[in-house]
Amino acid sequence: MLVVRPAGPADLEALMELAVLSGRGFTSLPEDEAVLSERLALSQQSFTGAIAPAEAWYTLMLTDGETGAVAGVAGVRAGVGIGRPHFSFRIVTLAQHSLATKTRFDHQALVLVNECAGWTEVGSLFVRADRRSGGAGSLLARSRYMLIGADPLRFSHTVMSELRGWFDEDGRSPFWEGVSYKFYRIPFEQADHMVTASDGQFILDLAPRHPIYVELIDHGAAEAIGRVHRDGEPALALLEREGFERSGLVDIFDGGPTMTCARDSLATVRGSRTLRLAIGHDVDGPQYLLSSVAIPKFRATQAAAAIDDGMVTVDPQTATALGLREGEAVRVNG
């Protein structure tokens, strides 16, 4: 049985391993021990309520319920752009018309914006390659929405997710090389690292001040605008099933799309309800997504359950995985 639980400082070694496995361009999971250590400490403070709700950043670990081995990671950031701006490129259409030549043109352009301040971000979704079958990715992804549904007022009305942009077979980002590098003049890895390891001031200092006409940039870079990395296509499908749509915003470094959904329109949130737990044996029922309702001790898993008269019956193993006793509240989706 796979179980999703809160991450804390003790998970540093496992998280570093996942960061290495995630590969180039996975900005939200840098190969930086100091950054990841700080994030795990922040996660612990977030789950315990030691910091303001808007500043919380919850990290979730996907684990093997029997061995405790970590199979994946995901995160929920309650509010982006709180301490520093969160920059994106917005794809806009600029219309130009001339009566003299009786012509009209629509030009696509990239404009630097800071529109996401205060939005909740779900991200950092990564599952080890050998554990991606059997619904592990879906369980981990949807557990983030069960966390949001447990206490919606802790989170923004708008939920966003940034997907990794396109990289070619040689590991090069056409968007970075054709657009962003011309302004930042540093290697992608350095810029990628500075996003999480610095205050981000360099982004504003060096960013383009005027619209960038798409027709004037390299064809390969233009083709990469809003294109998802091949490894991110399953994550895109999960987001779309949840109700996310393209927002017209893209990442300023790799051109990956920003997806958004209204918090209360998330399919997992809308389709879940709170029931009372009963414990039985030889439970005969369909598979449900189950989670605890208290954020400090949040747990989520998928297991067979039987629902009747406001009660949901699970086997003892499932109850233990959720950290719940008979009669306690449990959130159910399915």
UniProtKB/TrEMBL annotation:
Coiled-coil residue spans: none
Keyword line: Acyltransferase, Arginine metabolism, Transferase
Q: Where is the signal peptide?
A: none
**Sorted alphabetically, which SUPFAM superfamilies does this protein's record hold?**
Acyl-CoA N-acyltransferases (Nat)
Q: Which domain of life is it from?
A: Bacteria
Q: Name one Pfam family in it.
A: AstA
Locate the transmembrane regions by residue number: none
* NCBIfam families on file: arg_catab_AOST
Under which name does UniProt file this protein?
Answer: Arginine N-succinyltransferase
